[in-house]
Structures are given as C-alpha cells and as structure tokens.
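dumping this here before i forget
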Amino acid sequence: MSNPTAVAKLHLNKRSLTLATPPGILALVIVVSIIIALALQRAGIDPASEDYISGFRNNTGVAGSIIGFLVYLGVQAVATTFPFGMSLGTTRRAYTAGTCVYFVLQSAYVAVISAALLILEKATNHWFVHAYAMDSALLGDGNPLKLAAIMFVFTLTGMSIGGAFGAVFVRAGAKGPLVVGITLVVVLALLVLVLGPQIGAFFGSDVMLKLLSVALGIALLALGGTYLSLRGASVR
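structure:
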C-alpha cells in the first residue's frame, strides 16, 4: 500500500457503489423523464413544439440527481478507507495521490457512461417518446464530447469536495465538517457581496468554459485541503 495505484484499487473495491450506482441514478433520471414526457403529451402538449423542446432541454435532472451521491462518494472514500490504508503502511501523501487517481478514474467512468447514454438517447429519438434527459442545454447542448467533459469536471469537483469534508471529519470529528461548512458559506456570501458587480462581466462570454475552469480550481483546492487535513489526522 505504499503507492497511489494500490490506494486507488482500495477505493474501487466497493464495486456495487462505485460502478453500479452512477448508471443506476442516470437510468432513474431517464425513466422519470420518460414518465414526464408521456404525462405532458397526454395533457395535449405537442412534443414537436418549440416550447416543449426548449422547456425539456433546460432541465437540470441529471446534475441535480447525481451531485448528492458524488459528494457522498467522496466523503465515504476518505472517511472509511484512510485508517485502513494507514494500517497497511501507506503514507499520507501516497494515500492522497491515490485518492486523487480514484476520483479521476471515477469521473472518467461517469463521463463515458453519460456520453454513451446521450448517443443512445439521440439514436432512439429521445427514448422513442421525445423525453430529453441527457440531451440538455446544461450538459453540452446535445454534443457527446462536451457532455463528457462537463460530467468529468462535475464529478471530479463533487467528489473532491466530498473527499475534503471526509478528511476534515477524520481529523476533527463530527464537528469539523459543520464548522468548515458554515465558514465556507459565510466566505462565499462575502465574495458574492464584494464581487457581485464583476461576476456578470466575468461570465459574459464563454460561460461554460469559465464555469468548468472555476470548477476545476475548486476541485484542486479541495484536493489540497484533503492532503492538509490528513497530514495532521490521527489514525483511530
């Protein structure tokens, strides 16, 4: 357990959680989207109308349904395996690097699944009933490569944030994540208050690229916070 690869394999041992759950959540979103589409059509709404397509493609179902799981996945990855990893002789640096490798692999897995589902969705004329789940404006406007990039960054950021909170829990106990969470909310609110007038100008063009850049920056900060927290954490 002295190298990052071994740590990444340790995280991937829970295959029912890491491999089966993400496609399960996405499949559930698709099923719900199909039910909504059928309900709208039974209500007399024309699925070929611009309002129907525009409204459906602006949904946030995929992002909203999976973000909680991704954060949880990051939390449990660190909180449940760190003591075991330390007992097997891994260093804190190797553990953090291996956890980062695992987050990247998991993000790539979710990205590939999402892109495959989008291709299938478009090939079946949106699941045969004009149900838009993966083909949304938020997720790359129907472009599989853009969707894969967005889901990769989205997953990596969510898991990295969860991992940081898991590391704080390992180091400081149950009160640690609460204190950090409250602090972050206050800091974020102050930043919005101070930088509010500049936010609109910053995102005036290339919005998605800038959002992805900000998300990657947050992921890197979270990974750095994970390492700093684990450096001083005791093994219980």
